Amino acid sequence: MHPAPSLIVFTTLSGLGFGLIAWLGFGVHGAAPGWVVLSFCGLAFVLASAGLLASLGHLGHPERAWRALSQWRSSWLSREGVLAVATLGVFAVYSALWGFGGERVVWLGLLASALALATVAATAMIYASIRAVPRWRHWSTPALFLALALAGGALLAGRTSVGAGLLLVALVVQVLHWRRGDVAYAEAASDMGTATGLGARGRVRLLEGPHTGASYLTDEMVHRVGRRRSKALRRIAIVLGFVLPAVVFLTLEAWPAKHTVAGLAVLAHVAGVAASRWLFYAEAEHVVGLYYGRAAG
Amino acid sequence: MTSLPAESAVKLGLVIDLDTCVGCHACVISCKEWNTGTGGAPLSDVDAYGEAEGTFLNRVHSFEVVRDDAPPMVVHLPKSCLHCDDAPCVTVCPTGASFKRGEDGIVLVNEDTCIGCGLCAWACPYGAREMDRTAGVMKKCTLCVDRVTSETLPEADRVPACVRACPAGARHFGDLNDPEDPAARLSAARGGMDLMPEQGTRPVNRYLPPRERDEGTVVNLVALADPAEDAEAGGGLRWLDRALAKLG
Amino acid sequence: MPEDQAPGAGETAAREARPRVAKTTCYMCACRCGIDVHLVDGPEGRPAVRYIEGNRDHPVNRGVICAKGSAGIMQHLSPARLRAPLKRTGPRGSGEFEEISWEEALETARSWLAPLRERAPERLAFFTGRDQSQSFTGWWAQMFGTPNFAAHGGFCSVNMAAAGIMTLGGAFWEFGTADWERCEYFMLFGVAEDHDSNPIKMGLGKLKARGAKVVGVNPVRTGYNAVASEWVGITPGTDGLFVLSLVRELIRSGEIDLTYLIERTDAPWLVVEDPGAADHGLFARGGDGEALVADRRDGALRRWDDPEAKPALRGRFEAGGRPCRPVFELMAERYLSDAYAPEAVAETCGVPAATIRRIAAELAHVAFERAETIPYRWTDWRGVEHDHVVSRPVAFHAMRGVSAHANGFQTCRALHILQCLLGAIEVPGGFRFKPPYPKPLEAHPKPHGDAAPGAPLAGPHLGFPRGPEDLLLDAEGRAQRIDKAFSWEAPISAHGLMHMVISNAVAGDPYPIDTLFLYMANMAWNSSMNTSGVMEMLTRKGDDGEYAIPRIIYSDAYSSEMVAFADLILPDTTYLERHDCISLLDRPISEPDAAGDAIRWPVVEPERPGHAGVRGFQSVLLDLGARLGLPGMVDDEGRAKYRDYADYMVRHERRPGIGPLAGWRGDGESQGRGAPNPEQIERYKANGGFWQAHVPEEARWMRPWNKAWWDWAVEIGLVDAPQPYVFHLWAEPLAKFRLAAEGHGDRVPPEALRERLREAMDPLPDGRPPGAEDARYPLHAVTQRPAAMYHAWGSQNAWLRQIHGENPIYVPGALWREHGLEEGDWIAVESAHGRIEAPAVLMEAVNARTLWTWNAIGKRPGAWALREDAPEARRGVLLNHLIHELLPPKGDGMRWSNSDPVTGQAAWYDLRVRIERVAPRARSAPEVGRQASPVGVGPEVVAYDGKGTT
């Protein structure tokens, strides 16, 4: 699939933002003063909203985006929208009462947490429900999105040791997602034989595409990543997104200028997650590729 | 509503004959021609005289089938929306713009409420949907709904433009839920198949598989089976005098 | 709810107000389909084209339409359309022009041509391309007096026309067709997607619907061959050998239609057999000049048409003291030779011997076991009444694939002989002619030349020489024509040799010319062999600084490559803006059961706002003819006789009562013959743009011998007198040329040409593959026209060019692996003449020794209003660069044309090459410079809204 920058920014930032909301729903360490609460909450808001705004860039008609809230009964995208709006609404009330009023309404916080996680899950389910993209259609997709959101959120929420632990959990999920994903297309039931109905006759291969140039379909869904590039990006994602921040946060006390170091580690994490997301799209093989000569393997 | 309707009694669709399609692209262009500017936004072509990337609702792919004990085959596969019974493109739509009609099963996009998110195109395993780059809305085969439901077009023209155009007669249109419909009968007789049945989409459109290729007819012609006559005198024309004698 | 908001719901009512429908004739290729052009009110209230679909009533396409036809809107609105006459300002090839007025353009042309006509009319060479008005353009050239006129048939498919007419009195092409309704076994030879395309697709569809067997004989399995029940992946150029091997098997086993051969062909005719004698190979004739047969009862000689004769098919006889034998025996003797045994030809043809035997058996089985005797009353030309006709449900078709080889004429003859042996012509289930055919060779004109200053030619340029006496040679025996048509180098070049004109003119061989006048032929690009060389020739200057071809006038509707190489451009209209007649005098729209012709008319007016505008070329030619005072184009006072081409279509008479259009003549009730009718065009429009006259029931079958057919043909003016004939297995005209090559007669070829002529002019095809094997170039390379594109025309078409915007070289699997090629690789293809480099693509379903690519996709940067970095210019490639119009020099000082030695047909498909892997390039090679665009570059976005605007 085409790794659209708007979608990478969206899922990376909003994952982080909703992850932070999830943690903030449980409060913050210690009795923080109002401005600290508001800063945390504000950061969560900005990240989640920035992500959502970025996602608008993906739309042909962003001015009609509100319509996307209507089909929650059938569409994960619609559910995501509804949940995101609900999360931000609940969280806004929760943050205001907490930051300005000084009173953390626990049930409201837990509701915000639950909604935030549900939002992340809904985002993931948009992908995991697409049968036409075998790499995505697996429980590891929501697991990965949730693990990353929780880990990143924990880091931002200052729950460093939990965050570091979650990063390692997320790394396991990530590696699993990749490993399983690498064989998903080949193992999926669809191949050029089923795509054409000619599989029983022999080995099917594309002779001529329907057009010699590009099209929306080939731009959007017949993306191709080189093996070397993929390997390099995976290493970068593992080091920046998981290992480095985990090590930093586990040893944070030992660092001088630990806030700066922590900040840099979070940035590294974000960069790593962005790399992971780029691969999440770019490596995802859509079965429509079978009609354009993209055989499995 | 993006939930799928209860299964319709009428299932309008195409039966496409892979045994007959010569891959001439007539259906591709007649489709584009009819459907550009008929209601929705035109089907645009960006960089039309350079790289050229346009919106089409129907495309023809050409495949080779390499066989172990027979010559390779080439099969042309025209592909447009299959108007699936379990259309994943419909249920993923967040706005309800993508819908399947209860009365005849046609899958359509309401361009006025489409936000151009592209998710329906992702959900479709067949590549039947293309976002129009200029209009920012999703485009797809409407089965020429404005033709097939027209009350003013001549009866014979109430078929999709691609069917009307197809020079080889490889495209058939009808109610595939009606066993008496000629298109449905043809599909039944020729083993009409689904594309990617494992995707669980239950397409309405059917593809007639190519008939067996490159099988010689077994004919038993005694004379041809007996080259021994060659060697005999008369330069292989011994039969001629007998035959002429018969003519009188 | 969305259900109420289906796309188009709001528009349905508006559209279904049924915009005006104008019925005219398509011109997106040569098919001449009927189209319904839906018009709406466009900008400023002018009619605009909304939609084009097939005309359901039209005999050619019965309502269907192809990709090109549907894309006609994009052609009509193309940004490459020319807008005004142009005068060259930069050097040739640069594309630098200034727009001028029509008056200046026409006066310029007149001032160039008038002195030529007075002094030396042959100094004008007038050649047209995909011209559908050849009876008019030819007449114009005839009146001008130049012998140098032809259209593009010489580099297209003259072999099919010449072999068909000389053998059967009709050709494949679009002049005949399989009996799709009854045929059960159909063999298709070579690439044939080019002519008669919708009718053949419709026919294949009918066969498929019935489950009839289709056998495709073609090196490449695409298009029609993809749907073939069986594919014979033959080696290019060996179709004739394959066919003759089938012939051998059928003769050997007696699976031939003896009655048909005796009654309908020259099989029993006696041929003088006396090698070395001056009449060797000629028919034995009686005192009245009629050919003789020997009666098998008593050996007595009788006239071939003696109804009492029971002719022998074998034996030695004497006629007038000359030894002779029946054609059939000569033929059988030839083909029963081991050289034609399936085992002997298998390797050359790339077809297993068992397959050849089996196909022969299948043919025989279907032709004879599944034949039916159908009650049918008809009377033959001798007055004998018949009460039945026997079906032969086997049919054949071939076109360019067979034609474009140097042995194409004889290959096509071989195929026709096979049809004759099976008795499968003009019978149900077989091959049927379309009026004005059947028409024997004798009914066709001979070629005319002998130009004289200030005078018209005595007759039409193109025709069929019956022997050396009809060649167009000067007193020294040199060619009269610039293309050397009807000379010893191409005696039966019935369509001329357009592909030799530029090369010969630049070489001054046989003489230099002053003005080259071309219409609708992209000779600087895909219509020429040796494209790079031709561009150089067009720009070559002599020592005096003058171009070797001093003046070039060109008419085209679009900014093609050729435009850039001309000095004066006369811009033509698009096909929706013009009058045309698709005439019985040219290439009509007849079907086997009906004669028909059609018109094109301006369904929209040609408008090029802000420019001098464009004019239909034929009208311009009439204007020019009047300015030159050409006979027939001016009245007694020297004023223009015809207002425009439409006026000519109605009022011109070629013979008294016979005009370009056959329908609604006289008072509107006559057809075929009759006085001009001023209402004629309106009658055509009212009838959907065409006219048809149905063949009477009793004249439907066995027409070459059917009295009712000939009576009807005379009645509607197809011919002036009945001309019944038999098919010719034996080509006597060739025997005459062979005798000349052996030194007999008073007109003999120069020594250097004799051996080649003697070999080529074989009265029976010998199936020899063309050219000599050369180990350096072991591979074949051929092109096909994509069904969705037609030549260069399609590349300006915003829709079509997305389907074929570049053309890789398809490489057969074995070769691919041998060269270690991988996806994305480029290869160089090299011939004895040139080298190209282009992307390669793997294909398995292709003859193992054959490369191929699509034709005419590559474009010169700057042409066709495309961006200079358009894929056509970067990744498109022409095979033409590899093909020379001349064969490699043989050291004899001769310029040997790369053409069929019988007809001069350009031998495009004889190309032999080798390949190697090369590094990918930014642009395919060779790079051919660029040209400025006199019309700019097309718009960024096309979004056709159906109201005439984009």
Total count of helical runs of at least 4 residues of chain A = 10
Structural class of chain C: alpha/beta
Low-pLDDT runs of chain C: 1-18
Level of helix content of chain C?
25-40%
Strand content of the residues of chain C, in percent? 15-25%
Short description:
Chain B is α+β, with helices and mostly antiparallel strands.
Architecture overview:
The complex is a heterotrimer of chains A (297), B (248) and C (950). Chain A is mainly α and 297 residues long. Chain A folds into 2 domains: 129 residues, no CATH class; 167 residues, no CATH class. Chain A is 66% helix and 2% strand. Chain A is built from 10 helices and 1 strand. In chain A, helix 1 runs antiparallel to helix 2 and helix 3 runs antiparallel to helix 4. The two termini of chain A are 16 Å apart. The model of chain A has no long low-confidence stretch (mean pLDDT 93). Chain B has 248 residues and is α+β, with helices and mostly antiparallel strands. Chain B folds into 2 domains: 197 residues, 2-Layer Sandwich (Alpha-Beta Plaits), CATH 3.30.70.20; 31 residues, no CATH class. The radius of gyration of chain B is 25 Å and the shape is elongated. Chain C is α/β, with parallel strands linked by helices and 950 residues long. Helix content of chain C is 25%, strand content 17%. Chain C has 27 helices and 33 strands. In chain C, the strands form 9 sheets. Chain C has a 7-stranded mixed sheet with strand order 5-4-23-22-21-6-7, sandwiched between helices. In chain C, a hairpin with a 6-residue loop joins strand 13 and strand 14. Chain C is globular, with a radius of gyration of 27 Å. The chains are: A mainly alpha (297), B alpha+beta (248), C alpha/beta (950). Chains in contact: A-B, A-C, B-C. Chains B and C meet through helix 1, strand 2, strand 3, strand 4 and strand 5 of B and helix 1, strand 3, helix 2, helix 7 and helix 8 of C.
Q: What does the secondary structure layout of this molecule look like, with pairings?
A:
The complex is a heterotrimer of chains A (297), B (248) and C (950).
Chain A: H1 5-24, H2 34-56, H3 76-99, H4 106-128, H5 140-156, H6 160-187, H7 192-196, E1 203-208, H8 216-221, H9 227-250, H10 258-282
Chain B: E1 12-17, H1 26-35, E2 45-46, E3 53-54, E4 59-66, E5 73-79, H2 88-91, E6 98-100, E7 107-109, H3 119-123, E8 129-131, E9 138-140, H4 145-148, H5 161-165, E10 171-175, H6 182-189, E11 206-208, H7 222-225, H8 238-247
Chain C: H1 9-15, E1 20-25, E2 34-41, E3 47-54, H2 67-70, H3 72-76, E4 86-88, E5 97-99, H4 102-119, E6 124-128, H5 134-144, E7 149-150, H6 158-167, E8 176-178, E9 185-189, H7 197-210, E10 213-217, H8 223-227, E11 230-232, H9 239-253, H10 258-264, E12 270-272, E13 292-294, E14 301-303, E15 317-319, E16 322-326, H11 327-335, H12 342-349, H13 353-369, E17 373-379, E18 385-390, E19 394-398, H14 400-403, H15 408-422, E20 431-433, H16 498-507, E21 515-519, H17 531-539, E22 551-556, H18 561-564, E23 568-571, E24 580-582, E25 594-600, H19 617-627, H20 645-651, H21 680-686, E26 690-694, H22 707-715, H23 732-741, H24 751-760, E27 779-784, H25 800-803, E28 809-812, H26 813-818, E29 826-830, E30 835-843, E31 850-854, H27 871-875, E32 912-918, E33 941-942
Parallel strand pairs in C: 6-7, 6-21, 9-10, 9-19, 10-11, 21-22, 22-23, 27-31, 28-30
Antiparallel strand pairs in C: 1-2, 2-3, 4-5, 4-23, 8-20, 12-16, 13-14, 15-16, 17-18, 24-25, 25-26, 27-32, 29-30, 29-32
